[in-house]
Amino acid sequence: MSNNKKNNNCIQCDKSFKNLQGLKRHMLVHSEEKKFECNLCQKRFRHSTTLKRHLVVHSDEKPFKCPHCDKEFKLQSGYQRHIVVHTGEKPYSCTQCDKLFNRLSSLTRHLRTHSGVKLYHCTQCDKRFTQSLNLRVHLRTHSGEKPFACHHCNRQFTQSSSLRRHLKIHSGVKPFQCRRCNRCFKNSRNLELHEMKHRGGRIYKCDQCDKTFKTGSTMRRHRRIHSGERPFQCNYCNKCFNRGSNLQTHLRVHTGEKPYKCDHCDKFFNQLSNLRTHQRKAAEKSSSRVVIDAIICASDEIIHHTQG
């Protein structure tokens, strides 16, 4: 057995194979030869099996059909990636934090959050990213590109998620229904404000510190201060937050997004508070200049008067 394995060793990389056929197939990896050519697009392949898989791209045949939603796929790999949407299977586990993933590529991207490896580099500002998607989103802050446009009002967005949130305004979908009068609302906030009318302006009270709130959601957010609960986790660095809005603000550290622009100097900021601080300092500086100019002007007048 050992002699057979030795005879079927690759001289390029010492990899061993059970039989000569396996070795010959492997040797093509080291060779530049790609003798199997597609007669439709002239693309070349090292293996006949790879060529056969490629030929499906040119045909309309979709032999792999999803039993759950009737979606069809040309390649088995595409079908296998899709099927986990229905099964919920997540076979890939992170050894660092036990987080589960349905794709190996997703696990690979996630592992960079632990290793700190940032392969993707912005040539405009030297900022680095763990994922190519984050770099692409970040580059739009330099180019001003907003590729996602609303077909209702032509408003444009840098990210598809922002467009999806915006589209709810036009869709007319109102999934939040009042249990008392069946009136429907686009978001939970509007529903809560409406339900206050039925309660006669009932107040929500925190049982920990007696603080009162107008809505149940505001009270629940407040209670996380006492419980220490932080249900909103960053997918990039696993930092947790007690509010979804705080997580959204934090995510800009990773994406490089700066949505707040100063009208006076075209500077961009990732937080509204930073923009306001910038504007306040600019206003103070401008005010100081006015005072100094007034003092200089008054001094000139005094000198002119005394000399006269």
Automatic annotation (TrEMBL):
GO CC, alphabetical = nucleus
Task: Give the transmembrane region(s).
Answer: none
Q: Which terms are listed as keywords in the entry?
A: DNA-binding, Metal-binding, Nucleus, Repeat, Transcription, Transcription regulation, Zinc, Zinc-finger
Stored InterPro entries: C2H2-ZF_domain-containing (IPR050636), Znf_C2H2_sf (IPR036236), Znf_C2H2_type (IPR013087)
Q: Name one GO molecular function term.
A: DNA binding
A GO biological process of this protein is: regulation of gene expression
Q: Where in the cell is it found?
A: Nucleus
Q: Which residues form the C2H2-type domain?
A: 8-35, 36-63, 64-91, 92-119, 120-147, 148-175, 176-203, 204-231, 232-259, 260-290
Assigned protein family:
Belongs to the krueppel C2H2-type zinc-finger protein family.
Q: What is this protein called?
A: Zinc finger protein 714
- Organism field: Stylophora pistillata
Gene that this polypeptide is encoded by: ZNF714
